[in-house]
Amino acid sequence: MPLRDTLARVDGDLAAGRVPVARQRLRGLVSSFPHDLTVRRRLAEVYRLYGEPAEAGRWMYLEQDRDAAETAAFEERYRTAPQRMRALAWRGPESLAPTAFAEEQLAAVRTACAEALGRPVDWDTTPSGWKEDTGRRSFTDFLAGAGCLTALLAFLAVWVNGLVALFRQLL
Known about the structure:
Structural class: mainly alpha
């Protein structure tokens, strides 16, 4: 569906109060049109409706007229340059940016990311192969696994207890 038609649907969704649908459409548009700052701005507006300054700051990060508090919230949530680089969801070289400010922002984030990782990076290879924050993810994965295992053991205990009670009734 063309960009203009999808943006018209977003307007209809917002007018009808279907904010989550509008947000989802805009996220899809950012994925399809990563260089269109208008789409990013619209997505930031939707996140403002949710009261999410960090996400509004994320999608306004390439705009010169961005809100300083939203930018600070974005930088607080995505503390490292690799996290910011992934969060910005840009594809291609910075030269594709429609404004000089956006190009400067993208170059600054990419340069900081390359310094943090100790190797050159580009926008097209950022999502895969980055292990920058594996310690935190491993611990989170461990906690999730432990929670699942605990739930499974509790379920099995209840199930075995039920079977024992059933056989006692039958005997």
